[in-house]
């Protein structure tokens, strides 16, 4: 059943669509992730978004940020969220051009624009396409992921829904930047890269990095057909002089070109092989579908995530944005203790958190840390409230340029001073998750 309400001819027309609630809309540590076919069920996406909006109880005229990693169903979902946010009384929607925003860029934009929060459409490093995965999460006004209390409240709201509300709006042209004004509400389409690039220019010494690339040092970066392609072209190539040919898979695609957009030695095997060539580039790196993970390699060398954040702390004062140091650091429980040793040497507190970036956000918001990392190829600082793949690559470019040496030599010197920490990570790929949780009959021989 559909009900339509409008106060006058100039008012925004809103439809109320009645439907049954869904029982499976409990968010994980990074939002709600399901197969695309689940999200494309009638009412499924709408019910989840309505549960979020009902729980938030946003003030009239609220400002929200909307964008995603460009995977299949991203463009349609953005239009739906625009209509639902309008129906909820939002006054200003800030939307990434073509519906694209990397996860760290969305976090920064929420903070920069003092938004009440934002919808980030991503399933991170999961495969994309009509038969693959989709995801959505809500970041709060700090730019960080929804805390557990909010996630739990959204789940309870989703179970009690009797319908959802949609504003009667035409599709918004997301391809051109500018402001659309509809019934007093502003829908602003913004350059997805510009504000993020400005932040990176404040944090890093772009002149020194340009000099490093001009001297013949090469970066090879694999965007894995995820959202970071446009960011890499603007920052690495246009601003820092990296050759366009050194940007791999730089066009965002709905199915990530059939790739599994996860920066690890298995899914980036070609990058690892290139690092082992006789004339390997000085730095090789990759990021994932939504731009929050990173993998760092040098000539004949792969830098583990635990070592990476420890070495970044050791050399942080060589980077302009961190010359005054950091108040403390943190790592997730599964991450190696390499960071602890450097922190102790510098007299800094080092916190251990449960798995999930939102637990770092508590420490970041409290001003207790300025650098953090986890074993699943995620590193970040206080600049947003998400881990940040491109930021990590720029950090390492800045360190290499400042030290004028190689990544393997930096690692060797670090291990000589602090010792070396080892850990193992095992990933299990279960193509059929339903079977993964089902016990098969066992027969004794």
Quick rundown:
The protein contains 15 helices and 19 strands. With 445 residues, it is of the alpha/beta class.
Question: Would you kindly provide a written description of the structure presented here, covering whatever features stand out?
Answer:
The chain is an alpha/beta fold. It has two domains: 190 residues, Alpha-D-Glucose-1,6-Bisphosphate, subunit A, domain 3 (Alpha-D-Glucose-1,6-Bisphosphate, Chain A, domain 3, 3-Layer(aba) Sandwich), CATH 3.40.120.10; 224 residues, Alpha-D-Glucose-1,6-Bisphosphate, Chain A, domain 3. Helix content is 34%, strand content 21%. The protein is built from 15 helices and 19 strands. The strands form four sheets. The chain has a seven-stranded mixed beta sheet, with helices on both faces. The chain has a five-stranded mixed beta sheet with strand order 12-11-13-14-15, with helices on both faces. A four-stranded mixed beta sheet has the order 17-16-18-19, with helices on both faces. Helix 2 crosses helix 3 and helix 7 crosses helix 13. The longest helix is centred in the C-terminal third of the chain and has 15 residues. The N and C termini lie far apart (58 Å). The N terminus and C terminus are likely disordered.
